[in-house]
Amino acid sequence: MVTTPFEAYRSFIPDFEAFSQSLLEPLPMYIRINRLKCLREERVINGLAQKGVHLRSVTEIPDFYEISPWGFPIGTTEEYYLGYIYPQTINSALPVLALNPQPGETILDLCAAPGSKTSYIAQRTEDRTLIVANDKRIDRLTALVSNLKRLGITGVVTTQYRGEMFPMGPPFDKVLVDAPCSGEGRYRITKEGEVLYRKETRTDLPAIQKGLLLRAFDLVKTGGIVVYSTCTFNPLENEAVVDYLLNRRPAEILKMDYPLPSHPGLKEFNGRVFDSRISHCARFYPHETHSVGFFIATIRRLSGSG
Ligand SMILES: C[S@@+](CC[C@H](N)C(=O)[O-])C[C@H]1O[C@@H](n2cnc3c(N)ncnc32)[C@H](O)[C@@H]1O
Asked: Which of 168, 31, 32, 166 minimizes the C-alpha distance to 109?
């Protein structure tokens, strides 16, 4: 039996033993082909094959490929420097697919750096949407700008605000809140017993997440979409945050068909009962998706004052 820090979640994580076992396996590695620059995918497939790297198309997610061997330093290849590929885990595509960005829309990515989702939004819209990519950290925004430049993306404006205080102005069509979180979904243990991706934080993450989601909602137009995502299992950073919004604003949670296996949002946790609409949120587990753990709420702003 594998011991993990997730015993408190045993009651709701499906097939808990398989889940725990999966945390001992290395994380599969994926890339996205950047079609804004790479017009012939054979160029990438053949170029990487010459270096001993093989690609398997992830049929469920447009533009994504699993690479083998997993540990290959893909960020040192010519294909990476030319902006033809972007290393990105498959779950990270899901909030963008949920946002369903369309050319001509104005989209705010409230916690954007280093730009994995911003750049996928640009790719999905052929760089024909105006994206405002915000992050509170300048060092991470610098990485975002460098990524966008390498990928050949032009339709992005960057801003540096605490998202909770992002200035009110003309409303956006859509807002993505890929929130700072405890990152539990990235937890793995190596054969040597080393714990990967464990984050220690003294910050009150749920308080920050609630502030970000509320502001995102106020920044989107009536009928517009807010997607809230985290890579953690913790219900206090997921369902409880969405519950907080539902109690304060006129919102609807959309029931989505995600292309990877998912489970409904929880009805309750530790005796705390959540709004029944939260069952339309989606939870993703690493042993079922072969990727990191994830949570997504796709929210529509309704008219009215709440
Ligand atoms: C999960 S990461 C975002 C990853 C990014 N969406 C991507 O796909 O590349 C969370 C980001 O939120 C930023 N952040 C943390 N607190 C914030 C706040 N109060 N307002 C805005 N950004 C914040 C962090 O600097 C970090 O870059």
From this structure: 166
